[in-house]
Design brief:
By secondary structure, this protein is of the alpha/beta class. The protein is built from 14 helices and ten strands. Strands 9-8-7-6-5-4-3-10 form an eight-stranded parallel β-sheet. It has a two-stranded antiparallel ribbon with strand order 1-2. Helix 2 links the parallel strand 4 and strand 5. The longest helix has 19 residues. It starts with a strand and ends with a helix.
Length: 345
Amino acid sequence: MSLNGNGTHVSTIRPLKPGIYAPIPSFFLPESEDLDIPSFENHVVRVATAGVGPLLAGSMGEAIHLSHAERVVLIKTARKALDHAGLSNVPVITGIGAGSTRESIELANEAAAAGADYAIAITSGYFAGALAGDRKALKAFFQEVSSKSPIPVIIYNYPGSSGGINLDSDLITELAIECPNTCGVKLTCGDVGKLTRVAATVSDPMFSALHPRINKNAPFLVLGGFSDFLLPSAYSNGHGAITGLANVAPYSIVKLFELSEASMVDPSFLPEAQRLQGIIGRADATIAKASISGTKYLLQKLYGYGGHPRRPLPPIDPVTGEALWEHSHTQALVRLEEEVREKVR
């Protein structure tokens, strides 16, 4: 057992390791918009089998459309499905984004009780006009949430989902140093320079000794929010990515991460890593433009489930969806995924 900053006992958790994680979509039934549990179970196990860790109730998971009770259902369902599939070592990360600090802490406690291993927190964008320029308030949010959460917390920097709030590398580094219950950062700002600066601090051999985490299984990881810079980030001491594209092509992105890491030891792996990075980078840029509805459309084409987002978020127009599917970047990724998956099998 260990203690978090609030003095609460925390059970030993499944280790958080460098690698690839996917923000799992929440699937809904066509008419009622109730949770589609079978599709969700199927997808969580599908990506985890490929070596991708699941992150629930994030931006891709339409967390803003989920009730507290639904978030708990998804956590319990994912944990049960993973255990049943023989993947009991795979950790579950869950979003605790909300409108207030108080509610984020409440969600963290509910997530821990439901079986989540880690939380990921984002600042609310509702009052971004007041918060964005208030460094003290932004820092206080992550300090309070991480200190009162019973599970370690990943910092989530995504200006697109937080009203333009964009945490700088100095603030993220301060949080990593001063908040021992933080266990990483997801940079969906796409700023490679920011990743390099934060990683330079936390990868220093003295960092862990000087700033130990509350839970030894939860080191501070620096994770990109896209897969189009996995190879460069590896050479900057990054630790992988939490990327929506891993829902579509989990085997390919895991392979790219493995090749990127291997190429730093043996340069003969670099050409193949560069080939995969080119295919994945182009597809990431193309598919990301279609956002949640586009990803769901592709999942429907590939695996027979996906469906629509919850209203008011609209589904992708069928013509636009078909154009996305037929796009040369998408098809190159589909072919790569088939190639890599067959080699793994």
